[in-house]
Amino acid sequence: MADTIITNSPERDGGDGGAGWVVALVIIIAVVVGGIVLYRRGVFRAVAPASDTNINVTIPNPVNSPN
Known about the structure:
Layout: H1 17-40
């Protein structure tokens, strides 16, 4: 019969997991702060086109309604 050799990989140290969370948190904070700065400078604001269009709306008067 053939022998089976099982090699267990070493357990994780766990020391680099915290560093990954810190890097991810710094990146998220940078994206949020960058978005706020860009919004405050007006990069994301839509500018309405300048026009001299006059829109008049006529609404029927319910008091003079022939009910």
